[in-house]
Amino acid sequence: xxxxxxxxxxxxxxxxxxxxxxxxxxxxxxxxxxxxxxxxxxxxxxxxxxxxxxxxxxxxxxxxxxxxxxxxxxxxxxxxxxxxxxxxxxxxxxxxxxxxxxxxxxxxxxxxxxxxxxxxxxxxxxxxxxxxxxxxxxxxxxxxxxxxxxxxxxxxxxxxxxxxxxxxxxxxxxxxxxxxxxxxxxxxxxxxxxxxxxxxxxxxxxxxxxxxxxxxxxxxxxxxxxxxxxxxxxxxxxxxxxxxxxxxxxxxxxxxxxxxxxxxxxxxxxxxxxxxxxxxxxxxxxxxxxxxxxxxxxxxxxxxxxxxxxxxxxxxxxxxxxxxxxxxxxxxxxxxxxxxxxxxxxxxxxxxxxxxxxxxxxx
Length: 363
Prior knowledge:
With 363 residues, this protein is an alpha/beta fold. 40% of the residues lie in helices and 21% in strands.
């Protein structure tokens, strides 16, 4: 079975987006791709069955006929983990993954495998990335999310050390404008000289990682205090207002389209946020703000959300989803596809996978 396992060194590196973009490109080139996420830490209830959130979306976009819960054979819930750890005669989960891969890959030209959150994931249940890739005999493509000049190299070398000959190449993702020249002129030649193909360098596109006010409100189960809120407004950054008003104002001025998380009693911080580019105020602890704040927020078209959790709990809830490309919006997927098709050397990747640029058809 021809397959490619898309993984990453760290969380939120663009794996699902890449699976979708590659899958749609394969479809456009006449191929019939399959999809499987061997291990999931994102339980998602659908039709009374536990599935993976990403797998549900991929099924829809690629038009797969497999049930969503069959696209991720091992979904780790707290109950599953506890039973697994206490079970003296542990079930061989790898055999279950192999069986699912055979089903998902049956009749397909290539099977796209999506890795977990990072290469650190899976050890507790006997399904680390390296073992799964070896067992399935798959090519591995690593996504390297750009952080800074040294980390882009360290993460690449770490992936190479962990995966060895299974690693067929990398894609460097989310490279900011001020780092593009360094990556192209220094990083790519260095990595290529090591014998590791760099199939693409994708620049950072503002808004692809953003969440809408509505998504945030739903995750936090928030009450919306302002009239006529713009629920589709995008939040690109999160910041916590837990400092003096002067320090907050200085910090807030450096960030745009942000969500400011602060206590409902911190009127000084709220006013500072409203003086800058703020999309939404998230007020914690169920503490209602001053009517002045609500009035001014409505004038500036800033949504005010009230949540029952404290600041730390609110941040933890948002960190579970923020930074992950939420591709439920068709416009986001279209933008990423455009970037992928322009900056990834797909023919070179195809060659490495042993397939031609376009599938040959026989009369």
